[in-house]
Design brief:
The protein has 131 residues and is mainly beta. It contains two helices and seven strands; from the N terminus they run E-E-E-E-H-E-E-E-H. It starts with 8 loop residues before the first strand and ends in a 5-residue tail after the last helix. Its cofactor is Mg(2+).
Amino acid sequence: MWLLHAKFVVGVTGVVRDEEGRVLLLRHRMWPPGRQWGLPSGFARKGEDFRDTVVREVREETGLDVEVGRLVMLNSGLRTRTEVAFEARLLGGELRLDPFEILDARWCRPDDLPEGVQPVCGPLIRGETTP
């Protein structure tokens, strides 16, 4: 069975909001110029619950703690990649950016996103996607 079926990596994203309804956006070092702003994200580890991936990635990239909520996106058909996104709520922590991956971070209102935001982020932030 293993040889006959496709193998996938799973990209997991967190739509992290604070108590004011602002969303956390990160400027990623390794993303293409002009499209570096996006949501906290990373790849799930083997056997890892995707909700745990959100918690881990947000903590690794920003030092912040989050509580994961509902699934807001599930996309497949991207060659060998599947994309998953969850809502998340800020619990606390101190903002400390991972300098290897993240250049900048900011809390943004959904109607005031910076230039260079990844195209998928707007609909996720506005709640226009479905799982």
